[in-house]
Amino acid sequence: MKNTSLLANLKKQPGFIMLVNFLVMMAIYMLSRWFFYYMNINSFKDVTLSEMMSISWGGLRFDACALCYLNALCILLQFLPIKCRHTAVYQKVVKILFIVFNALGIAVNVADIAYFEFGGRRTTATIFSEFGGESNLGTIFANSIITYWQVWLFGAIMIAALFWLYYNPIKRDLQREAYSGNSKRYYLWHSLIFIIAGILTVSGMRGGLAWKMHPLRQDSACLYCKRPHEAAIVLNTPFTLITTAHKKGYVDPKFFDPNQLDSIFNPIRNTQPRGGEMQKLNVVVFIMESFSMEYTGFFNKDKDGGRYQGYTPFLDQLLSKSYCFDYSFANGIRSVDCMPASFAGIPRYINPYCYYVYSNNTLQGLPQMLKDEGYTTAFFHGAPNSTLGFQSFANLIGFEHYYGMDEYPGKDDFDGTWAIFDEPYLQYFADMSNQIASRGKPFMLTVFTASSHDPFRIPDQHKATFTRGDIPMHKAISYSDYSIQQYFEKVKSQPWFKNTIFVFTADHCGVNHREDYNNNMGRFLIPIFFYTPGGQLPANRDSERLMQQTDITPTLLGLLNYQKPYFSFGKDVFDQSPSHLNYVFNDRNGTSMYYLDSLMIEYNADQLIGIYDFKNDFSLKNNLINQKSQFPQLPLMQRQMEAILQQYVERMKQDRLTAK
Fold it and tell me: Which of 19, 41, 141, 616 is deepest in the core (most CB within 10 A)?
């Protein structure tokens, strides 16, 4: 009898009521996901049953996230440690709120089933600005009910199910007497439950319990599907609306007639391939955390009266054997900016691409292009797999395998804060490089180093070795440089070594220390270079060509003699065609910069605000804005800058970021 009484009491607890109704909504969202798939099956013909099960499993995280947001008020009301929760009137109010909020969620989720056919992705908060000026929304809505009656019928059934399945055993105020005594025990116990419910709700909003995990983003959906457009099945529309509500879409720049835009600047590359066979060389890309050009000795030999040594002795040696550039630039200012730029040709513009409302667009990534040509592709990063959403973006652009801290065998090598120390992790990367090479297929591998990141820790056994430097970053850079050297010591005698193009780039600049780099050019200068031990490229320090992260994929594809069109805002730096421009584009929080040969211009709010002769004015001390007539190339530069901005915004909004 006692156990029966306890069970009956549990069933009438407000927290239990909330849990049951939350699970009902989870079931409704899962049914909506399968109906979304069924109604748009022509867009997902390649999805197998097992893949759909994986997609559905991943979708649970996004459903729980959206429902935690939608029901935050109801969760609060049901778990507050107050006795009036147990009254019929209180529960009726909560029921009304729950049904209203979740009926709206069902409505927008179902509406997107019909809209997906036109948009090709889940709706984000930009819809409010895109359709804010429409005067005939009522007519559009009425027509959609007729055209997509199956969708709206399904939605009506789901809302009816929400109403009829709502669980509420408290019909009368019989529970008031049950909690009239033992107030101290009641408030203590239910306060503890309230705290636990709060932690679980916040974790649900973030997408998991790991506090170091980056909160769910739209592109996180790519963890659970094989093809980028399938992320729409994983996601739900309340999630995409809520998580983009605070983000604004781009304002359309109207510099040119859209029909003329491609003739001015066209991001579709390789439309006339060279012909011949593709050269299937291996590719290994090093993304070096925060490696500013100012840290190197190689590029700063003239500094401090020729006494500056830098903090990268091994890279300085490697640079002397590589094809490198005096002017090589990051296309962003954060780690999440690097991968879209380097592997998908998408520079940062105002905001990081991965955090923006358009981040579930379809991209054409270098890893996928090479995988389609028979390459094995893998991404390595010694931080937890959930860090900054790298794993989801790697999957989005076609990396076949991801090796993070979860796969690393020795957790004792963790630096205690951020990631596995670089030396042991790069030794692991060397072992994996050899293992992947032994399979006999060409490969593209990328490793993202980590130790030159705050808190700049160095393993205890190396602290006495790396002591030189003015700021903690300098010691960490020296340690990372040493770790890269140990990688090359381990692989340089391998048979695959000379058949490989090694590409080096930083993700962005690190802590600025030298005053001559403290400007809008110096904050983007990073070493980007190609090391080909087999002699495919000569050793050369190029002071003429301008290099940027978005150029990495086009230049690599050119070296490999890739034969298909692709999309990129970057260029092949070795392109010899007459129309080739020697340019760089980057943006710092809305101030856009365009470099052409030896001149740089700055734009802000679509206005020209700066002109600099950067090769003769490294510190950008002299703004030549009042001497426009001296620069005959200025009209071309402005025209190119404006075309890039317009192409970027229009293609981002229209989801046209591939060559298809």
Answer: 19
